[in-house]
């Protein structure tokens, strides 16, 4: 009992720190570029750009819970958008009103194809990791190459441009003034949060990450639970792919490559332990907010994207150092 | 005795390699042209030297995905310094590039040892940091052949043999192969004939047991990551010398290929297993397959798919092997 109390407290502590960090970044950016940073347009644009990265980070966190990692999320996201795009173009031509004003039911067909890609991609990872017992790093490096490679083979290199308006609505639309991607993200984030904290699946997953051997001896179905965690992460990645291609009206085999490191960073910064056992959706959302404010502020201050990479890397190392020092003190 | 030779991972890899060579040769006999074989051998050098470092890290139970960033940083910084100071040397620049890689490797080691953090996360962070610094602070423009130091170009194009084909073309076996072989011998000696090498295997097999026997965990980790960084830095500059230009965007995504090659060569990601010979065979296999797609009339867009399948098959095979051995 005391142990769980302490863990709860520790998690809250982490959230508190993150909130503080977010506030500090917000204050810093406001001070450095008050006229640009606080403009509604800037804050609004974050609600469109952040969700895809947020979904990838949640996907990463889910696999980290069991002590694994999913390095194929970008590959799955791009392949999902590309397969749906190929379906639309085969169905209604590469451009023209027939494509843009497609009937909702046909648009839904493409969305289902994208989601099925995520489920299947995740299932492949699940089989490789849970059944064949390949190390998650290598299994998802390999499968990620295959997904990205398949996307490259299917498109031949250039981007697939032009999606139905209904598909674009998911990435660009707004309902009651709230960005559609944000709504999708909040819905899925809430779903995953419930799944992780209120169901046997979520509890088991964290237990497996804490101590796989004990979990097996306690009679948990390790193979099944780990398998489904990768299916979940693949599916989340494919939703991110839908939003990404909906927002940009295009899909390409090498879009969003820098998202991979950022997703790992947000997961670690958000309190996930890559060795397994710890991680929460609330932490991810907080870390996502902090880093989106940071990178949007840096872009407004005209830093190059490379500088943003530099700062993200430094953040990752700093957060590792902080976490390590904190646990050592304890 | 003869059975134990057959059971070694290296023998299996060599046999698979031979079969693949025969297959590629059957599809297109041009594979066996000396010009093609020479260029294949040349393509092994840079990736191979990096793989030696990754192998050492992997034997110790770690992983390194930052070495391509270190390699490109060492190469670009050194070449830019040579251009700025009008510095025409060979040994000096290589010492500088190696030192840059070594220093960066020490940072990895400090994080992995001092903060007990998972190497994958640490090296993802340092890799991104170094690449961001290089492109964001140092510069993005490449140093082309006209400004590339002449001494480096001359060194990089040293040849062992020089032959002409009937059509009048010229092809040669690069002397850089000797450097690769020398490095491989050194790492092999370190791993199999020194106490330090024993310590690297011991740490990867069972860290706790290694500690109790008296191996210095700190020394081992620092040596392993510093060596990987130093080899990457050296290989980076060698790459620049061999292709006659320094591009700060080079080596993007190379970590996957090199890790794939090392795993293909029989090393275990859990540590404690792996050999220099196996790694060299793995590197040759990977380079050969990706270079031979064109010869086999397969579109180069398939390259990533092929590499992905190689990684998965190799890791599935090693995890199956390791499980049987434990059982």
Summarize the structure.
Chain A is mostly helical. Chain A is built from 15 helices and 4 strands.
How do the helices and strands line up, and which of them pair or pack?
The complex is a heterodimer of chains A (330) and B (327).
Chain A (H helix, E strand, L loop, with lengths): L1 H31 L1 H4 L2 H26 L7 H20 L4 H4 L3 H28 L4 H20 L4 E2 L3 H8 L1 E2 L2 E2 H19 L1 H11 L1 H6 L4 H27 L1 E2 L7 H11 L11 H20 L4 H25 L1
Antiparallel strand pairs in A: 1-4, 2-3
Helix pairs in contact in A: 1-14, 3-9, 3-12, 3-13, 3-14, 4-6, 4-7, 4-12, 6-7, 6-12, 8-12, 9-10, 10-12, 13-15, 14-15
Chain B lengths: L1 H6 L1 H19 L6 H26 L7 H19 L5 H24 L4 H20 L11 H7 L2 E6 L5 E5 L1 H18 L1 H11 L1 H7 L3 H27 L10 H11 L11 H17 L10 H24 L1
Antiparallel strand pairs in B: 1-2
Helix pairs in contact in B: 2-13, 3-8, 3-9, 3-11, 3-12, 3-13, 4-5, 4-6, 4-11, 5-6, 5-11, 7-11, 8-9, 9-10, 9-11, 12-13, 12-14
List keywords for this structure.
heterodimer; A: 330 residues; mainly alpha; ABC transporter involved in vitamin B12 uptake, BtuC; two-stranded antiparallel ribbon; 15 helices; 79% helix; 2% strand; globular; B: 327 residues; 14 helices; 2 strands; 3% strand
Shape of chain A: globular
Q: Low-confidence spans of chain B: pLDDT under 50, at least 5 residues? A: none
- Count of domain modules of chain A: 1
Q: Work out the number of β strands of chain B.
A: 2
